[in-house]
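A quick aside before the break. I want you to see a complete sequence-to-structure record at least once, exactly as it would be stored in a machine-readable document. Don't worry about memorizing anything.
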Amino acid sequence: MRKWGEKPYHSLDYMLRERFGEKVYKVTLNGGMSCPNRDGKIGTRGCIFCSAGGSGDFAADAALSITDQIEGQIAILSQKRPIHKYIAYFQAYTNTYAPVEYLEKIFTEAITHPKVVALSIGTRPDCLSPEIVELLSRLNRQKPVWVELGLQTIHETTAQYIRRGYPLSVFNDAVQRLRKEGIEVIVHTILGLPRESNEDILATMEYLNQMDIQGIKLQLLHVLRGTDLAADYEEGMFQTYERDEYLSLLIECLEHLRPDIVIHRITGDGPKDLLIAPLWASRKREVLNLLHHRMKEQQSFQGRLYKTAPDSNKQ
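That is the input. The structure line, written in tokens, reads:
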């Protein structure tokens, strides 16, 4: 069995300690951008699960400068413990959906902060023009740049239901162009989307095993107040996972994933004031403890069931 510290999977915390020599914390930033799925370019209602915060419910105030956002969060985080290194994480909405000149200004301001050791940018694969990728490539020569792509699923019928707004081919192209520039790619997936079976979810994991990705987020489906997904849930169109169901699926996903892929998220945080279901998800520490206990009992670990496909190369 491979070991990544004390956890049976390749955790973000373990990777950061290995790479930077100590624990590293994220500061979540808001560049004040929108999303083509909200401003009318693709749609106006966003993805079906997306809250008003656009996945940035924990991000800083966009009215502040990037430096002030960073300094404000550092002041709060460093009250409890000495912290020397941070990741600047642009989280809210689509963080490459702006003119390249503006992106260069805010990304440079973040990456040049003396306590920032890496830049992480959450975006859509259809919002990565050649000019933006060239900018990210230049920044990546200063400090590591990670791009987080919201894929959620490989299945086109589910993608249409959740109003993702782009086909799988666009994701594949974005990954290839980013990797050509040496930029690390982290993929967001959602476990428990309506109409998807466990086999469908595992098919997404197997697909990503063949892609040249460096990290993944395994996000439990959260039903949040005010979303179109909440309306479908309240009409009884689907059910969310019970805790034990989810833990079993999560273990299956980890066992099938390539052991080198870094697990950036293992369940996710739903804002407690918005979370409708599943309510057990708000007890994140309890869920993680149960996951680790069950994996230890089952002698389970990331990659246990991973098999290299014959004659295949990562795309």
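Two observations worth writing down. The first strand starts at residue 25 and ends at 29. The mean pLDDT is 93. We'll return to this after the break.
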